[in-house]
Amino acid sequence: MRANSRWCRSGSISWRSRRRSSTRRFRRARTGGGFASSIRVWIHSRAADEQLLRLILSNLLTNALKYSPPERAPSLTLTRVGRHAVFAIHDEGIGIPEEDRPALFQAFRRARNVGLVNGTGLGLYIVKHCVDLHEGTIELESAVGKGTTVTINLPMFPALTELGSTLNVRKGDEA
User: Of 14, 86, 97, 111, which has the highest C-beta tally within 10 A?
Assistant: First the structure.
């Protein structure tokens, strides 16, 4: 996040409270269905801009809910892979046609199979910019009629060498 620190505010995040409030909000937003989440993170320190993370997750979860049948709840999985937090949002909705995918992260672009589902075509555009500000990556896998998985990979945790130097400085300060 160094290059974009002007736009990203780093801080600690309480995943437990975030997950609870997001789950409640999305359960209310969806009639006849629930929101399944599996959060698997075992760490003490996280560095990210909470507002940008909220934008990323709320846009992706809203899309997953919007384009899925009511009886099929989307899932959110969060895992830690080294220095990275990896968010995967999966739905069993309408899917995105292959020919629409290259332009999907541009402003006001929507897939041609959305029918009468409301939207502006800004959700994935916003997500992409928030991910870029975190110096992360976004991947999209989709099959028409089967669903979509969006995977966000964000560097949020210090490297072991950074942790080691922090611990050595603290040790030196105490001596």
Answer: 111
